[in-house]
Amino acid sequence: MENSEIEAETQIIRESVKKLCADFPGEYWRELDRERGYPTKFVQALTDAGYLGCLIPEEYGGSNLGIREAAVILETIHRSGGNGAACHAQMYIMGALLRHGNDDQKQAYLPDIAAGKRRLQAFGVTEPTSGTDTSRIRTWAKRDGDDYVVNGQKVWTSRAEHSDLMLLLARTSERGSGPKPHDGMSLFIVEMEGAVGNGIEIKPIRAMLNHNSTEVFFDNLRVPARNLIGEEGKGFRYILDGMNAERILIAHECIGDSRWFIEKASTYAKERIVFDRPIGMNQGIQFPIATSYAETEAAALMSAKAANMFDAGKSCGAEANMAKLLASEASWKAADACMQTYGGFAYAEEYDIERKFRETRLYRTAPISTNLILSYIAEHVLGMPRSF
Ligand SMILES: Cc1cc2nc3c(=O)[nH]c(=O)nc-3n(C[C@H](O)[C@H](O)[C@H](O)COP(=O)(O)OP(=O)(O)OC[C@H]3O[C@@H](n4cnc5c(N)ncnc54)[C@H](O)[C@@H]3O)c2cc1C
Fold first, then answer.
1. Ligand 1 in contact with 371 (CB < 6 A)?
2. With 70 as the cut, is the pLDDT of residue 3 above it?
3. How far is the CA of 106 from the centre of ligand 1 (A)?
4. Average pLDDT over residues 3-13
């Protein structure tokens, strides 16, 4: 299927998200970036329009759409110069609750999330000492009567201060107690209200971009056992599916960024006159932008393929990883081409280029870094020996 055909299928969503985003122009995002604020109004507008509940089944008040549609929503936000990071986690971490939560948990949380009464936007996986090797996390949840008692620390937990619920991965038995290193970790829904200051302490991290990231400390936090998702010890398996969704959605955010950079750069190249002619007449200016365009469209095809496979229930680990790899590299190159095309003006905040340059760089590192994707392709797709 051509990119244009895929886009035609989702045209209505694209148009209406674009319209919504027009109320949140560059100045809105610049102001938040300056003060490291949370885009509450924007998230509320998306929720009111039903976009944040798009993956929730209708019986719980959502619109029961697929990852493809969710991806289009996020891509359009980024294509419009905004940033979906404030709320994208709600889309991809939802899967663990949808697929592995029990009826009581779904009843307790999904209708409120769909109605925008509660946000599920914090995902506590990364820890300071474990790095990408999630099997070595040290946060523990010990069973004590009807509760689990959680102790440990997470880092880079985005939106923890702006989320009512956190999906938390913690060890419930030692690494090595099961056949695989990732056995023995469990997944919990943590209600933040009441827990902050009472077992949870949150410290914001001042970072290169406005991502509302934090350190989260757990000190004898009591989590009711009814908030364990699925079976104890199988938490990592439950988040794996969600990781494919996350990669597909992030890939689409990158494509949105990339298309924004390419449009900015090509427009400016036509208008900016230096040496009595538009700078876009110079192939030194044209070629990086044209290369980015070609790479972005190729990445968009892979991303659409991954999304369609995900929605069809097909195994899509390779495609989701490749989509995220290709799209994050394409957006990074487009960002650099745009910076170069704008010359000195690229550094002025008012054009939003330097902000989006900082924002799109993240996706070569998080949620999974480029090296780790390449290692996945080498081992799992090409069958080369494991390196770690
Ligand atoms: C702004 C921001 C927001 C984030 N939000 C969240 C969040 O909400 N929730 C959450 O849980 N986490 C979050 N993260 C964490 C993010 O997922 C991790 O930073 C990322 O997965 C990389 O892990 P690390 O920082 O521990 O790097 P490390 O694992 O320490 O790796 C450092 C570098 O070494 C490379 N490397 C490591 N091992 C190998 C190897 N075997 N072969 C080749 N190269 C290797 C990596 O590719 C990387 O380039 C966020 C991070 C950032 C910066």
1. yes
2. no
3. 30
4. 77
Q: What's the gap between Cα 251 and its chain centre?
A: 9
- In the chain, how many H helices and how many E strands? 13, 10
Closest-CA residue to 54 (of 101, 13, 104):
13
Cβ atoms of 64 and 56 closer than 8 Å: yes
Give the pLDDT confidence of 100-155 residue by residue, as tens digits: 999 999 999 999 999 999 999 999 999 999 999 999 999 999 999 999 999 999 99
Q: Which domains does the chain have, with CATH numbers?
A: 3-114 (1.10.540.10), 120-234 (2.40.110.10), 237-381 (1.20.140.10)
Question: Which ligand 1 atom sits nearest the alpha carbon of residue 133?
Answer: 29
Confirm or reject: Cβ of 207 under 6 Å from ligand 1: yes
Q: For 80-119, where are the E strands, in sequence order?
A: none
Centre of ligand 1 to C-alpha 126, Å, is 8
The response to whether residue 156 sits with its C-beta less than 6 Å from ligand 1 reads yes
Strands 165-171 and 185-191: antiparallel
The phi and psi torsions of 344 (rounded to 5 degrees) equal -60, -30
Token pair for residue 268? 């400016």
The pTM of this model reads 0.96
* pLDDT per position as a tens digit, 145-200: 999 999 999 999 999 999 999 999 999 999 999 999 999 999 999 999 999 999 99
Condensed to tens digits (0 to 9), the pLDDT of residues 194-232 reads 999 999 999 999 999 999 999 999 999 999 999 999 999
Tokens of 252: 């689409």
- Nearest-angstrom CA–CA distance, 342 and 340: 6
Q: How far is the CA of 367 from the centre of ligand 1 (A)?
A: 7
Q: Looking up tokens 């390196």, which residue turns up?
A: 387
Ligand 1 centroid–CA 386 distance in Å is 19
Are 164 and 193 a contacting pair, CB within 8 Å? yes
In the prediction, which pLDDT does 5 show?
66
- Protein residue whose Cα sits closest to atom 17 of ligand 1: 367
Task: Point out the ligand 1 atom lying closest to the alpha carbon of residue 125.
Answer: 11
